[in-house]
Write a structure and sequence with these properties.
With about 110 residues, the protein is mainly beta. About 0% of the residues lie in helices and about 50% in strands.
Length: about 110
């Protein structure tokens, strides 16, 4: 059973960098053909795919967020990380780490001074 758990600060100030970690259990993040996503949902809006890191460590990002987003991994800890730079209040959302069909429970991040 794949389980994912997000962690990180619940409050970030504007212009700072948001960093979230997803701890994975039940499978290695390097398992062949597995893709690991970050998805977010702003209040009152739909789900937004932010980016992916694959089992081989390659990454891809949403074009609208590419300039501010970085996804990396630590295979020794079996976890992957999202960094979003220069955040604004529009980045306030529930952030999920996902390996379809498995989702983390989500973590609320609020951008506010």
């Amino acid at each position: 059973q794949v389980q994912l758990q997000e962690s990180g600060p619940g409050l970030v100030k504007p212009s700072q960098t948001l960093s979230l970690t997803c701890a994975v259990s039940g499978v290695s993040i390097t398992r062949n053909s597995y893709y690991w996503d970050w998805i977010r949902q702003p209040p009152g809006k739909g789900l937004e795919w932010m980016g992916t890191i694959t089992y081989s460590g390659s990454t891809s990002y949403s074009p609208s967020l590419k300039s501010r987003t970085s996804i990396s991994w630590d295979t020794s800890k079996n976890q992957f990380t999202l960094q979003l730079t220069s955040v604004t209040p529009e980045d306030t959302a529930v952030y999920y780490c996902v390996r379809v069909p498995n989702w983390g429970q989500g973590t609320q991040v609020t951008v506010s001074s």
